[in-house]
Amino acid sequence: MNDELKRLDPDQIRVINESVALGEELVSNHFKMSVNEWLRLRYDIKTLANLAGEEIIHGPFAQVIRYEGKRPDRQLGSATYDFYKICLQDHAILDALKGMPELALSPFSLYIITHELIHIVRFCKFLQRFDASPEERMREEARVHAATHEILSAAPVTEMAPVFKFYDEWRRPIDRLN
Ligand SMILES: [Zn+2]
Potential cystine with 102: which of 17, 73, 91, 162 (Cβ 3.0-4.6 Å)? Predict the structure, then answer.
Protein backbone atom coordinates (compact mmCIF):
# COMPACT_ATOMS: atom_id res chain seq x y z
CA MET A 1 0.00 0.00 0.00
CA ASN A 2 0.99 3.61 -0.43
CA ASP A 3 -0.19 4.66 2.99
CA GLU A 4 3.36 5.29 4.14
CA LEU A 5 3.96 7.96 1.48
CA LYS A 6 3.66 11.49 2.83
CA ARG A 7 0.57 13.36 1.69
CA LEU A 8 -0.27 17.02 1.42
CA ASP A 9 -2.37 18.11 4.41
CA PRO A 10 -5.72 19.94 4.07
CA ASP A 11 -4.10 23.40 4.27
CA GLN A 12 -1.66 22.41 1.55
CA ILE A 13 -4.47 20.99 -0.58
CA ARG A 14 -6.15 24.40 -0.36
CA VAL A 15 -2.96 25.97 -1.71
CA ILE A 16 -2.95 23.40 -4.53
CA ASN A 17 -6.57 24.27 -5.39
CA GLU A 18 -5.63 27.95 -5.63
CA SER A 19 -2.72 27.05 -7.88
CA VAL A 20 -5.03 25.00 -10.10
CA ALA A 21 -7.48 27.90 -10.47
CA LEU A 22 -4.74 30.43 -11.24
CA GLY A 23 -2.84 28.04 -13.52
CA GLU A 24 -5.97 27.34 -15.56
CA GLU A 25 -6.63 31.05 -15.96
CA LEU A 26 -3.04 31.86 -16.96
CA VAL A 27 -2.70 28.98 -19.43
CA SER A 28 -6.07 29.58 -21.11
CA ASN A 29 -5.16 33.27 -21.49
CA HIS A 30 -1.75 32.41 -22.90
CA PHE A 31 -3.26 30.16 -25.57
CA LYS A 32 -6.11 32.65 -26.12
CA MET A 33 -8.69 29.94 -25.47
CA SER A 34 -12.32 30.77 -24.82
CA VAL A 35 -14.14 29.26 -21.86
CA ASN A 36 -15.83 26.78 -24.20
CA GLU A 37 -12.56 25.74 -25.79
CA TRP A 38 -11.07 25.25 -22.35
CA LEU A 39 -14.01 23.14 -21.21
CA ARG A 40 -13.46 20.83 -24.16
CA LEU A 41 -10.09 19.85 -22.71
CA ARG A 42 -10.74 16.71 -20.77
CA TYR A 43 -8.48 16.46 -17.76
CA ASP A 44 -8.45 16.05 -14.07
CA ILE A 45 -5.88 17.05 -11.47
CA LYS A 46 -5.50 14.69 -8.52
CA THR A 47 -3.25 14.41 -5.50
CA LEU A 48 -1.84 11.23 -3.99
CA ALA A 49 -4.99 10.39 -2.03
CA ASN A 50 -6.81 9.92 -5.34
CA LEU A 51 -4.16 8.09 -7.34
CA ALA A 52 -4.16 4.41 -8.20
CA GLY A 53 -1.00 2.39 -7.57
CA GLU A 54 0.28 2.62 -11.14
CA GLU A 55 -0.27 6.39 -11.18
CA ILE A 56 2.23 6.87 -8.37
CA ILE A 57 5.85 7.40 -9.35
CA HIS A 58 9.02 8.29 -7.49
CA GLY A 59 11.10 11.27 -8.50
CA PRO A 60 8.95 13.58 -10.66
CA PHE A 61 6.53 15.97 -8.98
CA ALA A 62 3.72 15.07 -11.35
CA GLN A 63 2.95 12.94 -14.36
CA VAL A 64 0.26 13.14 -17.01
CA ILE A 65 -1.49 9.90 -17.92
CA ARG A 66 -3.69 9.60 -20.99
CA TYR A 67 -6.79 7.48 -20.76
CA GLU A 68 -9.25 6.64 -23.47
CA GLY A 69 -12.81 7.55 -22.61
CA LYS A 70 -15.88 6.06 -24.28
CA ARG A 71 -19.19 7.79 -24.59
CA PRO A 72 -21.72 5.28 -23.31
CA ASP A 73 -24.48 6.19 -25.76
CA ARG A 74 -22.56 5.42 -28.96
CA GLN A 75 -21.02 2.34 -30.45
CA LEU A 76 -18.77 3.65 -33.21
CA GLY A 77 -15.02 4.04 -32.79
CA SER A 78 -15.32 7.80 -33.13
CA ALA A 79 -17.16 7.86 -29.82
CA THR A 80 -13.90 7.56 -27.93
CA TYR A 81 -11.99 10.54 -26.59
CA ASP A 82 -8.72 11.23 -24.82
CA PHE A 83 -8.82 12.02 -21.16
CA TYR A 84 -5.79 13.28 -19.26
CA LYS A 85 -5.10 12.87 -15.60
CA ILE A 86 -2.50 15.09 -13.95
CA CYS A 87 -1.21 13.00 -11.08
CA LEU A 88 0.47 15.17 -8.45
CA GLN A 89 3.03 13.26 -6.41
CA ASP A 90 2.59 14.66 -2.90
CA HIS A 91 5.58 12.78 -1.49
CA ALA A 92 8.01 14.17 -4.10
CA ILE A 93 6.67 17.72 -3.70
CA LEU A 94 6.97 17.53 0.09
CA ASP A 95 10.49 16.12 -0.14
CA ALA A 96 11.55 19.01 -2.39
CA LEU A 97 10.05 21.58 -0.02
CA LYS A 98 11.81 19.97 2.91
CA GLY A 99 15.16 19.90 1.13
CA MET A 100 14.91 23.43 -0.25
CA PRO A 101 13.41 25.78 2.35
CA GLU A 102 13.57 28.67 -0.14
CA LEU A 103 10.82 27.00 -2.19
CA ALA A 104 7.26 27.85 -1.14
CA LEU A 105 4.39 25.51 -1.95
CA SER A 106 2.24 28.17 -3.60
CA PRO A 107 4.63 29.27 -6.39
CA PHE A 108 6.15 25.78 -6.67
CA SER A 109 2.81 24.06 -7.16
CA LEU A 110 1.73 26.82 -9.54
CA TYR A 111 4.78 26.07 -11.68
CA ILE A 112 4.14 22.32 -11.63
CA ILE A 113 0.45 22.67 -12.47
CA THR A 114 0.96 25.35 -15.14
CA HIS A 115 3.61 23.16 -16.74
CA GLU A 116 1.35 20.10 -16.87
CA LEU A 117 -1.60 22.13 -18.18
CA ILE A 118 0.61 23.42 -21.03
CA HIS A 119 1.46 19.80 -21.89
CA ILE A 120 -2.24 18.96 -22.05
CA VAL A 121 -3.15 21.96 -24.20
CA ARG A 122 -0.32 21.09 -26.58
CA PHE A 123 -1.48 17.46 -26.82
CA CYS A 124 -5.06 18.55 -27.44
CA LYS A 125 -4.03 21.09 -30.07
CA PHE A 126 -1.89 18.37 -31.71
CA LEU A 127 1.22 20.48 -31.21
CA GLN A 128 2.80 17.46 -29.59
CA ARG A 129 2.18 13.72 -29.77
CA PHE A 130 1.68 11.89 -26.49
CA ASP A 131 3.75 8.96 -27.80
CA ALA A 132 6.69 11.01 -29.08
CA SER A 133 10.24 9.60 -29.16
CA PRO A 134 12.46 10.13 -26.10
CA GLU A 135 14.49 12.80 -27.95
CA GLU A 136 11.36 14.64 -29.00
CA ARG A 137 10.02 14.41 -25.44
CA MET A 138 13.18 16.09 -24.16
CA ARG A 139 12.79 18.90 -26.68
CA GLU A 140 9.13 19.24 -25.70
CA GLU A 141 10.12 19.44 -22.04
CA ALA A 142 12.39 22.38 -22.82
CA ARG A 143 9.64 24.08 -24.84
CA VAL A 144 7.09 23.58 -22.06
CA HIS A 145 9.49 24.87 -19.41
CA ALA A 146 10.14 27.94 -21.57
CA ALA A 147 6.40 28.57 -21.94
CA THR A 148 5.87 28.04 -18.21
CA HIS A 149 8.57 30.58 -17.44
CA GLU A 150 7.11 33.08 -19.89
CA ILE A 151 3.60 32.74 -18.46
CA LEU A 152 4.65 32.94 -14.82
CA SER A 153 7.13 35.79 -15.36
CA ALA A 154 4.21 37.99 -16.33
CA ALA A 155 1.89 36.69 -13.59
CA PRO A 156 1.26 38.53 -10.34
CA VAL A 157 2.78 35.88 -8.09
CA THR A 158 5.37 36.31 -5.37
CA GLU A 159 8.27 34.07 -4.40
CA MET A 160 8.64 32.83 -7.97
CA ALA A 161 12.40 33.50 -8.20
CA PRO A 162 13.57 30.41 -6.24
CA VAL A 163 11.26 28.25 -8.36
CA PHE A 164 12.66 29.67 -11.60
CA LYS A 165 16.15 29.07 -10.24
CA PHE A 166 15.27 25.47 -9.44
CA TYR A 167 14.13 24.86 -13.04
CA ASP A 168 16.82 27.02 -14.61
CA GLU A 169 18.73 24.30 -16.41
CA TRP A 170 15.70 23.49 -18.54
CA ARG A 171 15.95 26.87 -20.21
CA ARG A 172 19.54 26.48 -21.32
CA PRO A 173 20.25 25.31 -24.87
CA ILE A 174 20.00 21.54 -24.90
CA ASP A 175 22.75 20.91 -27.43
CA ARG A 176 24.22 18.40 -24.98
CA LEU A 177 21.54 15.99 -26.13
CA ASN A 178 23.22 15.58 -29.54
ZN1 LIG B 1 6.86 18.23 -18.58
Answer: 162
